[in-house]
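Title: Prediction job returns without error message
Component: structure pipeline
Severity: low
Priority: P3
Assignee: unassigned

Description:
Job completed but the reporter wants confirmation the result is attached to the right record. Sequence as submitted:
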Amino acid sequence: MSFARVYVLQQPHLTILGCALDAAGGALFPDAESDYTSCMRAGVALLGFCFLAMASLASPDKSARELYDALNSVRVNPAATYEIQTADRIELHRADLRLAFDEGKLAFFAALDGRITGAVFSGRGHALAIPHGIVEKQQMARFLGAPVLDQDFSYVAIRFTDSTADDLLRQLATAKREPRQDSDFASRWDAPLAASNPVHSLRITFDSLTADPRPYFYATIGGFATGPFDAVLDLARYEPFLLGQLKKSPTSTREFYDVWASYQIAGVTPPRPAFRALHYTIDTSLLADGPLDAKTEIRLRALSSGERLLVFQLSRSLVVNSVTGDHNERLAFFQNEGMNLQERNTRGNDYLYVALPAAPAANTEFTLHFHYGGNIIQPAGNGVFYVGARESWYPHLGNAADFSDYDLTMRWPRRLRLVATGAKTEEHEDGDFRIGHWRTEHSVSVAGFNLGDYASTSISSTNYTVDVFANRQLEQALDNRLETSAATEPGAKLPTFGGEGRSAANMIQIVPPTPRPSDALKQLAREIDASIHFYETFSGPFPFQKLSVSQIPGTFGQGWPGLLYLSTFSYLPAEAQQRAGLSESSQEHFTELVPSHETAHQWWGNVVGWDNYRDQWIDEAIANYLALLFADTQKGARPLRIWLERYRKHLTEKFPDSEQQISDIGALDLGSRLTSSKSPNGFEDVIYGKGAWVIHMLRESLRQPGTKNPDARFAALLHTLATKYAYRALSSAELQREVEAVMTPAMDLEGGRSTEWFFEQWVRGTGIPRYRVEFNVHPGEKGFVVRGKLFQEDVPRSFVEPVPLYFASGAHPTFLGTVIAAGPETSFHFTTKVEPHKLLIDPQMTLLAITQ
């Protein structure tokens, strides 16, 4: 896998969860945070959520904690129950959602500080929603079988800070419905509300911590056909409107949050960050198989006035003991409220909320001090250790495009070695422990560490050093797998000899020795160093003074600033990978792609960032494609073409019992939404394969064959991106503008130097075109006239694409011309001096297409 981040919606807020890519058919050492969905790393939540809200409920003398506790205890008011009939026409309209309460009972929550924050309904109703945009309609159809939500429901539970109570009460008054006492109906909601209130109470409490409150509406709806699903209209989210459902995958025991639709609302400005982290000072003491104890100081700057709430990512496995301010004053914070250890591990979230006593003025700087601890390191056996909370082992503010300075002090068992982000300034022994100090050379978006019983090697270049670390033994799970393989598979057999040299009846099976990850250190170091030199041609100088490459149990990789986590498989020879059950393509994946892919993330992800899930694909696609280009320079078998063919084949595979293919999961700009109960590996299936193809098509479109450097335009594009967008976010819209700045005339299909057609089809659209050609040849005055039709299928009628045609001629095909395919069929004619007998559609593989 790689540098990536995944976010799962739980209740009305989003929780960041990581997972391990299982290319080998089962994670050898499961990620501690892999219970839900796809891959890695801290950052902004899936849909850009941040906690802000509407008008304050808190009275002047009520603290945020007191308000939160009071909201948790709120229940249905037995005296506020209404009987509803169909003729009453009681409805709620929120964005593109209409909820009709046809028949049943509706009751309001008891008022708190004079305001009602919830209502419940039981009976019969109907939900209707028509989402905006083709992509959202496609996603709705994928989950519901139709591009609209059209569902009967049996109950609704609503929490809100908007005008919902007023809207319903006004309609009830018009229908002449009077409230009645119904204690039995109210009491039936006590248990569900006790479970769901805490997370809603947090959201509503945060109303009192902002000068710019934004309305919040959240409904859990009991659909007859779908089961429970959620409807959200929260103007504090980057995309305020959401429809979705928590659901188990039929092919997995994991739960996923299926986002049916999520998008922005016209006229609503997304919220802007209120704070920025300038500097992290982290002092951590850890045991190899015990708890971490840490203190972190974060220097922050207020970007606007009137905000008191800060939201940090922090592993649910870590318990915060205290948060204090500049003057050692204790600050209110919220983390996994009301949960015991088991509940925290199963349904806790990875967020920490801190309330300031007063809102600082814009541009004010201040420091927060955190003390926390817990277990995030797990033994994997044989002296191998696994850092579970790699992206959330310290309180982290902001997203993947927020860059800060880091100062790390680490204390760990003396018998182990530790590697970390930044330049190590010193290390010394202290009894049974070692203490080391690291500082980042410049701002980074995240910091990490790894530890183990490591052997190491080092390669120095002009501007940087590559240090490669590996455990001296395999993790226990992989060791067991190799031992089982050796015991069950026939090995080479040699005869034993008696004292007179005659062959004995018994035979000895030669069992391959258990490989050691440390055996591959020098070769892996050389390969990573070679990839850096290759990438500098496209991306500029290596951005760090040191790159530490460390082994991690499992089947994935990650690229942190100056620190790589590589799967044990990337350290093993092909024979051991095969014994472990890897296919040939998986072996090549771990050997050819994973190390170089993660190295490419040193530029693409750790220098050029992203701050919205819809732009996440860019860094992954560029890193993956550059890894393919590098692999292509290392072997004579043309790995680039092989991998592109594999990706195309996989993208066009059909789902079991379905006519849909992998590429139909969704568009690139859906990012982590691609992972769902219907496609547990959706992010990996689409982003890496289709993303690499999209960058390949851009490169091919920008190429200038016959020149001294055919890739000059492509290299210039990447250089521009790597410098212009260094230490900030790069969006898809900005990428499009930079492509248009270097585009060739042939790319200008719409006029006006626009590549909107390309990004609309390949980034924001789905579908892979299928082409076939019919033609005839007639002699002409200047040679042979070739007339025919190019047929385009499996894509929308609006799909346009320049399709190159060749004809067979000797050892290499001869270029005939380019047809701008538009619609189901496009006529063409060309003149050539040689009579063609067979036309070839894109034999050079410049397009992601199926050709016949």
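Comment from assignee: result matches the submitted record. The mean pLDDT is 87.
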